[in-house]
Write a structure and sequence with these properties.
The protein is 61% helix and 5% strand. The chain is mainly alpha-helical and 459 residues long. The chain is elongated, with a radius of gyration of 31 Å. Bound molecules: arginine (ARG). Arginine binds at residues 24, 28, 84, 110-111, 114, 318, 320, 322-323.
């Protein structure tokens, strides 16, 4: 038999394959509570505008609450023949309240309905991502406070560069995740306009009040153009692109944790709670959570590319292609929240191996730049010459198999006469980090100032 919602002009029902490719209920049932919230706002508005009687509006309101509680209790039977969440809800409403259910769809289309439902869902996920990021930032700040003056190697090209502090490294990620938070916030501000009442694409002749439904659903205002409103998925794409950048940051940090927890580095110990073992090698403790977080960018960025590709080239306004938006966003959101929570757990639990960090910081001629700076400051050499002299000293130390502070003053003087005893002061890693007092630099005082600024922001 033909479809009860749109089958008026059809003599035959859909082929089973048609039904299978067309139905979205298996995944868009996740929009149930948003769909019902949207319908309740719409019905209340229709009644206030005199488009629905108060009796019908009341029956719809009650009926929708019943449907919602059936869904929440798992007592609702979803039907593929009814395609999607919108028609499943309406059809059940009809079973419960009868004819009045058929008046709910006045001045509305599934096009503005789905745009509204999906926006409400994405908005919740933006809020969840922001709280997940805040929890992670708090965990990073706690680590930074503990080790504001623990010295570790800073790297470029993953080669020892200059000593930095543990707190400085943790706070670098706080800046990244802070920008992610602000990106989600920006997206939320931009997307918070209600598509409801745009109807199929052209608006409606019924005297509806779009401002009323917008307000009831927590939107700042109705969308300004009905064609755009039903054709727009920018909000989903902005969510996915913000999520992709955030997942990229998570992936970089996860990679560092994988390296840092290896036997070769031993910078950190991950907790048992966030590690796994091997079924064959009894000694193993693997950083699986970090590895999976490192990998999540694959599906999250994949979702971004997939939806961007679905949307490109679509003529206005709605096309069924757009039904392919949801699974991508659902999957990306689920995995982003999981990755954020797992990273927060790992960061809170991990223990830095302070002695190993310091030893690693002191090796690899990490204070060579300090020595060159000293030659500029104390011996008046042009920086290029100082760089050259220091390079020669590094070569000498390397040949002897020692670090820079192990060279004797005579050995130093043989390279440049101007070097004095005072040079040894700048060759320790502690003095090196303490000297980097420029704004945003690695000196513990700067790191503590950065921590204080963040604590003020977070309140
Ligand atoms: N299930 C559809 C979707 O997710 C709802 C909108 C259907 N609109 C239509 N004109 N067929 O996009």
């Amino acid at each position: 038999k033909s479809n009860a919602m749109w089958g008026g002009r059809f003599a035959a029902g859909p082929d089973a394959i048609m039904e299978a490719i067309n139905a979205s209920i298996d995944f868009d049932k996740r929009l149930a509570s948003q769909d019902i919230a949207g319908s309740r706002a719409h019905a209340a508005m229709l009644a206030k505008q005199g488009i629905l009687t108060d009796t019908d509006a009341e029956a719809i309101r009650e009926g929708l609450l019943t449907v919602l509680s059936e869904i929440e209790r798992g007592e609702f039977t979803f039907s593929t023949a009814l395609e999607d969440i919108h028609m499943n809800v309406e059809s059940r409403l009809k079973e419960i309240i009868g004819e009045a259910a058929g008046r709910l769809h006045t001045a509305r289309s599934r096009n503005d309905q789905v745009a509204t439902d999906f926006k409400l869902w994405v908005r919740d996920q933006i809020d969840a991502a922001i709280s997940g990021l805040e929890a992670l930032i708090r965990a990073l700040i706690a680590q930074a406070e503990k080790g504001a003056d623990w010295v570790m190697p800073g790297f470029t090209h993953l080669q020892t560069a200059q000593p930095v502090t543990w707190g400085h490294h943790m706070m670098a990620y706080v800046e990244m995740f802070g920008r992610d938070m602000s990106r989600f916030n920006d997206a939320r501000v931009r997307m918070n306009e209600s598509p409801l009442g745009s109807a199929a694409l052209a608006g409606t002749g019924f005297p509806i009040d779009r401002h009323m439904t917008a307000e009831a659903l927590g939107f700042d205002r109705p969308t300004a153009n009905s064609l755009d409103a039903v054709a727009d998925r920018d909000f989903a794409l902005e969510f996915l692109s913000s999520a992709s950048i955030c997942a990229m940051h998570l992936s970089r940090f996860a990679e560092e944790l994988v390296i840092w927890s290896s036997a070769q580095f031993r910078f950190v110990a991950l907790s048992d709670r966030f590690s796994t073992g091997s079924s064959i090698m009894p000694q193993k403790k693997n950083p699986d959570a970090a590895e999976l977080i490192r990998a999540k960018i694959g599906r999250i960025f994949g979702a971004n590319v997939a939806l961007m590709t679905v949307m490109k080239g679509l003529p206005l306004a709605y096309s069924k292609d757009m039904q392919e938006d949801k699974e991508q966003v659902f999957d990306a959101a689920d995995n982003l929240m999981l990755a954020l929570a797992a990273m927060t757990g790992m960061v809170s639990d991990m223990t830095a191996n302070v002695d190993n960090l310091r030893a690693a910081a002191a090796s690899g001629f990490s204070t060579a730049t300090d020595l060159a700076d000293w030659l500029v400051r104390e011996a008046g050499l042009p920086f290029r010459d100082a760089h050259h002299v220091t390079g020669a000293l590094v070569a000498m130390a390397e040949k002897k198999g020692v670090d820079l502070p192990d060279l004797s003053l005579d050995e130093m003087k043989s390279v440049n006469e101007a070097i004095t005893e005072g040079v040894y002061d700048v060759l320790t890693v502690e003095n090196s980090v303490a000297s980097r007092t420029s704004y945003g630099g690695t000196a513990p005082a700067q790191v503590r100032a950065q921590i204080a600024r963040w604590k003020e922001v977070l309140g």
